[in-house]
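User: Predict the complex with D-4-phosphoerythronic acid.
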Amino acid sequence: VHAEDLKRRAAAHALTYVTDGMRLGLGTGSTARHFVELLAEKVHGGLTVLCVPTSEQTLAQAVSLGVPIATLDEAGPLDLCIDGADEIGPGLALIKGGGGALLREKIVASAAREMIVIADASKKVEMLGRFPLPIEVVDFGVNAITRQVAEAIRSAGCAGDITVRRDGDGHPFVTDQGHLILDAHLGRIPDPAALAAAVAQVAGVVEHGLFIGLARRAVLAGKDGITELEP
Ligand code: DER
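Assistant: Here is the predicted structure with D-4-phosphoerythronic acid placed in the model:
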């Protein structure tokens, strides 16, 4: 079964948690894109929802499909946030940010009563870290910030190269909020909470891609069907 089919199946299953009148956070990435497409079909069928996108990319998709949108301040507290993940580890700790939207994603997920992660089953791992950890930083003194981040990583018992994410034409990638992203290639993160705490303290770090204690449910689609995980 093709990965895109699995992503769409996970998205379709998550849609069963959406009820009329809900305020929703809409995630970013290829799996979330399937969710927004399927949600739009329900909206055209009469479903009433108000949605807060987690990126300009998702905003554009929602607008193009006629999904009602609002800013997070206009919407107020959200019922559900549905988003993808790069890795899903023990306790539903996540690595997110592969698509560069981790800051708005984490703000929106934190504003929702419940975050549901949708993914193909290959995202489930025994230990986080094979996927490089995205760290969003301001663009002032990036080399100095990177040195401090490396120190924080070591203090949390991890190690690995840190690269500045670049876009297609080799320029530093710039997020929707105008920041840069460092990717820490750690390989393994035995204690995600310790790493999150250490990295978050570095001056110039805006946010990191460890989502701990946010996801309340993961909907995974594998070749033999849907699996739901809870922390
Ligand atoms: O960048 C992100 O946080 C995305 O949600 C990412 O984690 C999942 O993207 P995918 O659904 O395209 O794999």
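The CA atoms of residues 152 and 201 lie 8 Å apart.
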